[in-house]
Amino acid sequence: MSNLSHPSLTFSRQVPLSGLVTRLPTSKPNRQPKTHLLNLPTIVLQRILLRLLVSPTRLILHHDASTPSTYRTFITTNILFVNRQLYHISLPILYGSNTFATSSPATSYDFDVHLSRVPGRNKCLIRNIHLKIDWGRQLWAKFPLIAMRLGELRGLKSLRLQFVDREDSNEDIRVHIQGEPKGTTSRREGHLAVMMLNTEKKMLKEMVQGMKALRVFELKGFEDVEFARRLEFEVRNGRGV
Predict the structure, then answer these.
(1) Pairwise CA distance, residues 116 & 114, whole Å
(2) pTM value > 0.90
C-alpha cells in the first residue's frame, strides 16, 4: 500500500507525495520493453489500474484532526508517475472510480473549500461524492457555497447527502471550523423555521436540476422526507423537478 497527498487531494496521513495535479512525469524517449504495462491488452491494463487506484473505502479530500487514526485507502498511486501516458490513463480512474468524502460530519461544513483546491481539469473527473452532515440547522446559510462547488463537477453521477445527529466528540472541531461559541445552536421555530426549510428545499432543487450528469441522488435524514423522496425519484427517472 502506498500513501499519497497533494495540494488538492490527500489520501494519507503519513508519507506525502506532492505534485500529482501540477506536474506530469518526465521521461526520455526510449524503447519500451516488451513487458511494459502499455503493451498489455487494454482490458488487462484496466483491471490492473482498478486494483491499484480504487479504494474500497471513501477517499477523504482533506485530512484534519478528526480523521480516524485507522483510516486507510488501500490504493497505490506510484503508477501515475511512470510516464505521461500512464498518468493520463490513470487519472480518470483515480478520480472517477472512487467515492470522495470528508473526515467527519462536522468537517463537511468546509467541503466547498476542499473542492475549490481541486484543479478544474480534475474536478470534471469526479463521479461520486458522499457527505455526512451534522450541521443541518445551518444548512440554509452555508449550503449555497457547497452547492456552487458541487455544481462545478460537470461529470458528477452520484451524490449522497446524509444528515446525522451531532456527536459530542465533534464539538471542538465544529467550533474551530464555524467559529461558534461552544454550546450554541441555531433556533428554528415558528415562521422562521418554515422560511429556512423552504430556502433549503429551493437550494437543493436548483442544485440537482443543474447537475445534468447526475444519475444517483440520495437525501437521507432531511427534515421534509416527502420532498427528499420526490427529489430522489425525479433524478432516478431522469426528469426535471
Answers:
(1) 5
(2) no
CB 55 within 8 A of CB 74: yes
Q: What average pLDDT does this structure show over 54-79?
A: 84
Q: How many distinct helices (H) and strands (E) make up the chain? A: 8, 5
**Confidence label for 32 from pLDDT (cuts 50, 70 and 90):** low
Is residue 23 pLDDT above 60, yes or no? Answer: no
Name the burial class of residue 207, with classes exposed (0-12), middle (13-18) and buried (19+) by CB atoms within 10 angstroms of its CB. buried
Residue 235 in contact with residue 217, Cβ under 8 Å? Answer: yes
C-alpha cell read off for 92: 480518470
Q: Which three cell numbers stand for residue 85?
A: 501516458
Kindly provide the residue ranges of all beta strands, DSSP E only, lying in 51-179, ordered along the sequence.
Answer: 59-60, 99-101, 128-133, 158-163
CA-nearest of 160, 119, 109 to 139 is 109
Q: Which pLDDT tens digit goes with each residue over 176-196?
A: 444 443 444 445 778 889 999
How far is it, in rounded angstroms, from Cα 157 to Cα 210? 12
SS3 sequence, 56-67? CCCEECCCCCCC
